[in-house]
Amino acid sequence: MILEKINYQEYRWMVCGDFKMLTMLLGQQAGYPKYPCFLCLWDSRNRDLYWTKTDWSLRGALTPGEETVINTTFVPPEKVLLHHFFI
Fold first, then answer.
1. Cβ(31)–Cβ(78) under 8 Å?
2. Confidence band (pLDDT; 50, 70, 90) for 2?
3. What are the Cα distances from residue 67, in Å, to 6, 51, 85?
């Protein structure tokens, strides 16, 4: 795996990528999940609140089996940087 080749466990660099790459690294479900954000519980399928609600509950831990998380994380969420156009 790429993380082994770059010795991620030794250096623990910050990670920056698009949402698809971050989804894979954080162990989340691919495709069209109900909760796609790793920071909050934004419900992507709730069309009534899609553009009006701005305060979504913060996500606690990324626990496998809960809220579209299917695997353990490869990278800790606190080591993830978002591109400026995602903020």
1. no
2. confident
3. 30, 21, 25
Task: Give the DSSP letter string of 8-71.
Answer: HHHH---EE--HHHHHHHTTBPPSS-S---SSB---TT-TTSTTT---PPBP----TTSTTB-S
| Predicted confidence (pLDDT) per residue in 22-38, tens digit | 888 888 888 888 888 88
Assessment of whether the complete model's pTM goes beyond 0.85? no
- Name, in order, each residue with C-beta under 8 angstroms of 45's C-beta and a sequence gap of 6 or more: 34
d(CA 46, CA 49): 6
For residue 5, what is the DSSP state?
Answer: H
